[in-house]
Design goal:
The chain is 43% helix and 16% strand. By secondary structure, it is α/β, with parallel strands linked by helices. Helix 4 crosses helix 5.
């Protein structure tokens, strides 16, 4: 066979193989994991895990500089540690950073026989922090992670240097969000069970959806569908636990440390009017409202969110020493 024809035949064969495999879920999953690994590498994050008494907790860690502070980051409901991966890129190298997968999420324990109340999540975060050996640190959380961070701070305030609340759950907003309205009608779009429902969730969550290279959206949609029953179970346990999501505003006055309230003004899951409640009850708070931004600012605009957070840390450096 003519060498040129052999070369053309080989190239066509490779292209046909890639096209064929592109429709294979396993191939897409592998590509997604590789891409996420590259994202973690660019942010200096290493994947690790801890075996606790009843749960395995996965996390990523970026080493800081000697003498630098530690930051712990917590994600929201049905999310995972990857929500913070691009945000971390813009945090100065002096900080050591730990990004945890809470129980029932990401690479941590996902077991239908386990319990996933907010109290369980706070307990796992506390146990993980103890196992890692941290004494004091900055703590920040988004959505459900913000509530977990708040309740952890209320229990272990002497260990928390500053608290960051990124569109945090835990107070009753004066204005109902779109999520509240839909849930009352029996339509919880937070728990999708199809690709169409996943795309709808993304539309509710972001104003400008973050770039997710192919085949990320398909892989994420399958993950949500796979975890549909577990996510329903977690939602029920979180909301049925007395005092977990209803309102912690009455306890916020006990938090005597600097708190950053950072919110996307177009959040359709937790209405921006929540900010006024946090401001009313927290003794020492700083508020940043990101314009034309949705529920997960550190994903939608990671650099901008990180700039606000670092400025807050710098402004309160003397108070945390």
């Amino acid at each position: 066979m003519n060498p040129k024809i052999r070369t053309i035949t080989f190239i066509l064969g490779v292209c046909l193989t890639v096209i064929t495999m592109s429709g294979c879920a396993a191939f897409q999953d592998s590509l997604f994991k590789m891409g996420l690994g590259v994202e973690r590498f660019r942010s200096g994050l290493d994947a690790k895990s801890l075996q606790l008494d009843n749960y395995t907790i996965a996390y990523t860690e970026r080493k800081g500089e000697p003498g630098g502070d530690t930051i712990i980051l917590l994600h929201g409901f049905t999310a995972d540690k990857s929500n913070w991966v691009r945000f971390v890129r813009y945090i100065p190298a002096q900080y050591r950073i730990l990004v945890l997968d809470m129980p029932g999420h990401g690479d941590s324990t996902q077991d239908m026989d386990k319990s996933y109340t907010v109290t369980d999540m706070v307990g796992c975060v506390a146990e993980a922090i103890d196992r890692i050996g941290l004494k004091q640190f900055h703590l920040a959380g988004n959505s459900l992670g913000g509530l977990v961070a708040t309740r952890y701070t209320l229990r272990y305030q002497n260990r928390v240097l500053t608290l960051g609340l990124f569109n945090a759950a835990g107070v009753k907003a004066p204005t109902p969000s779109d999520l509240e309205k839909h849930v009352k009608q029996g339509d919880n779009f937070l728990i999708p069970n199809s690709r169409k429902a996943f795309d709808r969730l993304m539309g509710f969550t972001f104003v400008d959806q973050p770039f997710i290279p192919w085949p990320g959206r398909a892989v994420l949609a399958r993950m949500y569908m796979k975890n549909y029953e577990l996510n329903q179970k977690m939602w029920g346990e979180i909301n049925n636990e007395n005092g977990s999501l209803q309102d912690v505003s009455g306890q916020l006055g006990n938090i005597a440390l600097p708190v950053l309230i950072l919110w996307g003004d177009t959040d359709r899951l937790l209405h921006v009017s929540s900010v006024s409640v946090f401001e009313q009850h927290l003794p020492d708070s700083t508020t940043v409202i990101m314009k034309n931004c949705g529920h997960i600012p550190m994903m939608e605009r990671p650099k901008e969110a990180a700039v606000h957070y670092v400025r807050f840390l710098n402004n309160h450096a003397s108070q945390t020493r």
